Amino acid sequence: MTIQNRIARLLSYKHLLNRFKSLGLVRVFSDNIADPLGISASLVRKDFGLFGISGSQKGGYSIEDVLHKINNILGSNEVNRVIIIGVGRIGEALMSYNGFHKDGIKIVAGFDIDVKKIKKTGDVPVKPIEDINEYVKENNISVAIMAVPDIAAQQTLEILKRANIRGILNFTPVKFKSTDDITVNNFNIENELVNLIYFVNNFKKNGKEAKRVSNNI
Amino acid sequence: MTIQNRIARLLSYKHLLNRFKSLGLVRVFSDNIADPLGISASLVRKDFGLFGISGSQKGGYSIEDVLHKINNILGSNEVNRVIIIGVGRIGEALMSYNGFHKDGIKIVAGFDIDVKKIKKTGDVPVKPIEDINEYVKENNISVAIMAVPDIAAQQTLEILKRANIRGILNFTPVKFKSTDDITVNNFNIENELVNLIYFVNNFKKNGKEAKRVSNNI
DNA sequence: TTTTTAATGTTACATGAATAACAACAAAAA
DNA sequence: TTTTTGTTGTTATTCATGTAACATTAAAAA
Ligand SMILES: NC(=O)c1ccc[n+]([C@@H]2O[C@H](COP(=O)([O-])OP(=O)(O)OC[C@H]3O[C@@H](n4cnc5c(N)ncnc54)[C@H](O)[C@@H]3O)[C@@H](O)[C@H]2O)c1
Ligand SMILES: NC(=O)c1ccc[n+]([C@@H]2O[C@H](COP(=O)([O-])OP(=O)(O)OC[C@H]3O[C@@H](n4cnc5c(N)ncnc54)[C@H](O)[C@@H]3O)[C@@H](O)[C@H]2O)c1
């Protein structure tokens, strides 16, 4: 459950550098970044190299410069418009959350099948699901959050495909595979909890296995 | 973003086998499991072997038997009691969610600093944060979900440590490192969205990179 | 009873990702 | 001006994880 991939690391670098910046720092060395994140300094330099981020041989990296470049890579310097399908408990929580803008993300509309949820006013409208094709086309949306009930997940996937959505953050426990047409990130809260409970129950405090897993059977 | 680790795969096996079971199937071969998940059959057999799940040489694996063993390994045959700290938008959504029981998870209490949130009645009480030590001890709780505002995240971590909580599912964007004492699963919704947006913006439909990342700079 | 078959369980290999090592070199010191 | 220093950028190595290959063996077929 450590840092997984290059893009995830870029986000970690960004958050750490923002903290350095708020402390008044201007430049950093690769190990200043590596140590707090528990990774090697050479990996930081390799990542930077791969993304064309360069430093100076004695003075390290300019925090401002790196941050700007990371935001460019991640697209966080623009506003990325995202829609939500299913404005229930999870959908509503996400819709009213105001922490997305710092990463260049804006929830611009919700869509629901229930007429009671439809809301024309307010800064983020909730529209009937039938309007999705038109809205996505007119506003050039490519990413959607799926927060409908499990039973409606499959049909919602088809709807989103038809609307030419390219990426889905899927909160339902129904697992979808990514295809060439559409990338799905299955965000399964149950699974994460089960995983966590397993570790807590099976690993002792010293970090070693409490008992051989095969003894568990 | 494929299947990450052994325990995550066990969950995938479980869900797939449940679907097979509901179709009336009784036995499966390793490739019946591997193919739908896009992994190799030898990995399925290796996983099963590591967890002491065995099949028969001609008849494959008994679905019922494997499911029972997986649930045992994951602890899903018992009830795992979990508490929530911070009963706001996310916390409330999780608290009222009734999909956890199928994985042997039960949210048994919420804790909040705001007196208006305190709720003695109902099946899941919301208690003042001061009561946490006593509650955790009396009910032998080891896992908590953190859904407090970012600003309260650090102090909440300390509170949970003092209460001897062993595992945290952390919904705040504040990243905590796991230690020998406590395992933290940082569940960062923003990061997942940024990651998704990056892929959608940078990979063409054919699955190849749209452009070299270094051209992005 | 013997042979064949088709699956498991296990070992060897490949691949990819992180770390370690180091060469290159700009800045500072002498 | 020359030497030293310390950090970047890059190459070599290690390590982990998944796949491929295969040896084993219970059941079916002959
Ligand atoms: N609430 C949680 O804490 C939680 C936890 C884990 C997983 N989930 C999953 O997240 C998903 C949403 O959960 P929730 O608790 O927000 O559900 P919910 O029932 O509160 O909300 C679902 C919303 O989707 C709408 N909807 C139903 N069918 C639709 C359709 N075909 N098209 C568009 N909208 C439709 C409903 O009108 C409702 O507003 C579920 O799949 C659930 O399993 C939720
Ligand atoms: N809402 C979302 O969609 C969303 C999305 C991504 C991340 N998050 C993160 O999840 C966390 C919770 O978000 P939210 O929208 O549910 O917030 P919220 O403000 O709706 O709820 C927070 C709750 O925590 C309680 N609280 C505050 N300080 C506390 C303390 N010291 N101890 C116990 N309880 C305390 C508050 O009384 C409130 O009930 C935040 O860190 C947020 O950044 C939320």
How big a fraction of the residues of chain A is strand? Answer: 15-25%
- The total tally of domains of chain A equals 2
CATH architecture of the largest domain in chain A: 3-Layer(aba) Sandwich
What's the story with the biggest beta sheet of chain A? 6 strands, parallel
Give the chain pair forming the largest contact, with residue counts: A-B, 71 and 71 residues
Helical residue percent band of chain A = 25-40%
Total beta strand runs of chain A: 8
Instruction: Give the CA-CA distance, first to last residue of chain A.
Output: 24 Å
Rounded radius of gyration of chain A (Å): 21 Å
Q: Which hetero ligands occur in this complex?
A: nicotinamide-adenine-dinucleotide
Order of strands side by side in the largest beta sheet of chain A? 5-4-3-6-7-8
**Structural class based on helices, strands and sheet pairing of chain A:** alpha/beta
Form type of chain A: globular
The average pLDDT of chain A is 90
CATH class of the largest domain in chain A: Alpha Beta
Low-confidence sequence ranges of chain A: 206-217
What is the subunit arrangement here? homodimer
**Helical segment tally of chain A?**
8
The CATH superfamily name of the largest domain in chain A is NAD(P)-binding Rossmann-like Domain
